């Protein structure tokens, strides 16, 4: 039976990944920052009648500390696949270099070094990156930009320290660059794939039990549900992929030989805030959210095709969940959890 290690197992993407791995018959060992996070994940799996006996966890309190993953890998020589999802994703950092950039870069390096030193039996490694390591944003963006799996964000380290948004862009870009530099320099005994999703939306892996349980991605939807009928709409554009497809892509990344050494760029659709609001208003009119300017939600349907992900689609071989289904499932889950009932 294949044993898969998932770092950052309590994260948004990782929890869905753990679910899907167990459903496919894999045994999973996850790293979490505390026993309470590991116990909570194990309990949630049990409540969904998933084989929680095939999930165990190891404590890695700080992925950026030297040797962070050494003990976990020494303890489990049965691990043959390593999926590194652990990386900070929030916009609250006060010290961007210390809280975003260094943990992402060093955490990734620590994982690769530990595998090379203590887990020679590991042959497949998958690293969660992001679309922001691929595209150009902010001062780097130009009209008519086009991107493929071979594109890179040109952001530099100093720019990354200017604000938390640039900090996040830098954290994903530099961490992924560290992956490919390691492969080139060390020629390890394992193959590497990266998964580069757009904005990851969709329902959380387990029922929501409180406002503090919402992750950064789910809050993208939840903040709309807090709007008053007369609230002004700030129309932000982004790319999207559902969390269930992201997890599925991580599994395909180690299962499929053709994914070895590849960047998998996951984009299902482009969207904007008005488009999200249109979907919520259509499916949940009882929420009485602001209408905004519905026509603006359709603007991206005729926009130039900025992203070419043909290589990824050919490797994965499955259709993505659409934006409307993803948003509908997210809102249903949030409403059931009674989270977004108070309007700000």
Automatic annotation (TrEMBL):
A Pfam entry, by short name: Epimerase
Keyword terms, alphabetized: Oxidoreductase
Family annotation (PANTHER family): NAD DEPENDENT EPIMERASE/DEHYDRATASE, STEROL-4-ALPHA-CARBOXYLATE 3-DEHYDROGENASE, DECARBOXYLATING
Keyword Flavoprotein: no
Gene3D superfamilies listed in its UniProt record: NAD(P)-binding Rossmann-like Domain (3.40.50.720)
Annotated protein name in UniProt: NAD-dependent epimerase/dehydratase domain-containing protein
NAD-dependent epimerase/dehydratase domain mapped to chain residues: 4-260
GO molecular function: oxidoreductase activity, acting on the CH-OH group of donors, NAD or NADP as acceptor
Family according to the record: Belongs to the NAD(P)-dependent epimerase/dehydratase family. Dihydroflavonol-4-reductase subfamily.
InterPro entries named among the record's database cross-references: Epimerase_deHydtase, NAD(P)-bd_dom_sf, NAD(P)_dehydrat-like
């Amino acid at each position: 039976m294949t044993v898969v290690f998932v770092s950052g197992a309590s994260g948004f993407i990782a929890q869905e990944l753990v679910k899907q791995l167990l459903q496919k018959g894999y045994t999973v060992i996850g790293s979490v920052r505390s026993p309470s996070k590991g116990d909570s994940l194990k309990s949630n799996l049990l409540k969904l009648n998933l084989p929680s006996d095939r999930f165990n966890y190891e404590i890695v309190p700080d992925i950026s500390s030297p040797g962070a993953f050494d003990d976990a890998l020494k303890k489990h020589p049965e691990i043959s696949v390593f999926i590194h999802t652990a990386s900070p994703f929030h916009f609250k950092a006060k010290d961007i270099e210390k809280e975003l950039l260094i943990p992402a870069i060093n955490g990734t390096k620590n994982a690769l070094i530990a595998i090379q030193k203590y887990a020679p039996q590991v042959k497949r490694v998958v690293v969660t990156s992001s679309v922001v390591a691929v595209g150009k944003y902010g001062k780097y963006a130009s009209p008519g930009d086009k991107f493929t799996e071979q594109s890179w964000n040109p952001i530099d380290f100093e720019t990354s320290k200017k604000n938390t948004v640039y900090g996040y862009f830098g954290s994903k870009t530099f961490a992924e660059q560290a992956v490919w530099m390691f492969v080139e320099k060390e020629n390890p005994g394992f193959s590497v794939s990266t998964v580069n999703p757009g904005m990851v939306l969709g329902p959380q892996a387990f029922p929501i039990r409180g406002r503090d349980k919402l992750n950064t991605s789910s809050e993208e939807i939840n903040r709309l549900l807090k709007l008053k009928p007369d609230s002004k709409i700030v129309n932000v554009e982004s790319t999207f992929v559902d969390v269930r497809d992201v997890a599925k892509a991580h599994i395909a990344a180690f299962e499929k030989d053709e994914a070895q050494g590849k960047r998998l760029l996951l984009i299902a659709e482009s969207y904007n805030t008005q488009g999200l609001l249109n979907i919520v208003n259509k499916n949940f009119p009882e929420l009485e959210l602001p209408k905004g300017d519905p026509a603006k939600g359709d603007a991206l349907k005729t926009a130039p095709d900025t992203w070419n992900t043909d290589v990824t689609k050919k490797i994965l071989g499955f259709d993505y969940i659409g934006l409307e289904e993803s948003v509908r499932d997210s809102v249903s889950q949030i409403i059931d959890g009674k989270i977004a009932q108070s309007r700000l």
